[in-house]
Amino acid sequence: MKIATYNVNGINGRLPVFLRWLAETQPDVVCIQELKAPQEKFPEQAILDAGYQAIWQGQKSWNGVAILARGYEIKELRRGLPGDDEDLHSRYIEALINDVVIGCLYLPNGNPTPGPKLDYKMAWMARLTDHAAKLLEYDLPVVLAGDFNVIPTENDVYKPERWVNDALFRPEVRDAFKKLVDQGWTDALRKLYPTETIYTFWDYFRNAYGRDAGLRIDHFLLSPKLEGRLLNAGVDKNVRGWEKSSDHAPVWIEVK
């Protein structure tokens, strides 16, 4: 089974790019983030025509997450991260597909720092860590996939010294991510490529993609029941270079 994650940076504005990528790569399951569309504006028919069923949680102008599947039933398990009934951001959706629990997430950016946006990010990460601990108790394989907005190490960013005060790279953010992973999760790309330079995001400014001045912020975390089934993983970097593409590239894993 091939599972992909892709921050599309606006599903409707990037729909031709997204559909082209789907047609060329044909993943079985896709987690997408930053729909930037209200619930009723999700392009369900275009997704169906491409061969995929979908569940989604939209939000006007911002956020929004979805899970797509081709040839598998999607059983929705949860929408919204538990732990704060007042948090109305559309950032988490969870489903059971082919006996695998898949959590699709769009973790808060947290900038500018310090301030309330970083506080919200840290609280969200604490809630995610609490929920992830419960997921590890399931008698099923689990994957957490999406845009984590976390640069885990200096090896995951071009010129790390420029990011020391950014909410994606601040020590407390990286410590929170490490605390999550240390519950027993496996960073899929780093398991297969422990030292290679791998980026999943390139800013639109200063020719970042052309210079390969990127970040690795889109991740797959695998539970112990899934870690041993990991066959392959990669980044469809070329998609970032397509016209009117997202500033993220699709990331994927293959599991047996």
UniProtKB/TrEMBL annotation:
Its cofactor is Mg(2+); Mn(2+). Residues 4-248 form the Endonuclease/exonuclease/phosphatase domain. It holds the Pfam family Exo_endo_phos. InterPro entries: AP_endonuc_1 (IPR004808), AP_endonuclease_F1_BS (IPR020847), Endo/exonu/phosph_ase_sf (IPR036691), Endo/exonuclease/phosphatase (IPR005135), ExoIII-like (IPR037493). It comes from the Bacteria. The record marks N149 as: Transition state stabilizer. The record marks H248 as: Interaction with DNA substrate. One of its GO terms (molecular function) is endonuclease activity. Probably binds two magnesium or manganese ions per subunit. The active site is at Y106, D147 (proton donor/acceptor), H248 (proton acceptor). One of its GO terms (biological process) is DNA repair. Belongs to the DNA repair enzymes AP/ExoA family. This is Exodeoxyribonuclease III. The lineage of its organism: Bacteria, Pseudomonadati, Bacteroidota, Sphingobacteriia, Sphingobacteriales.
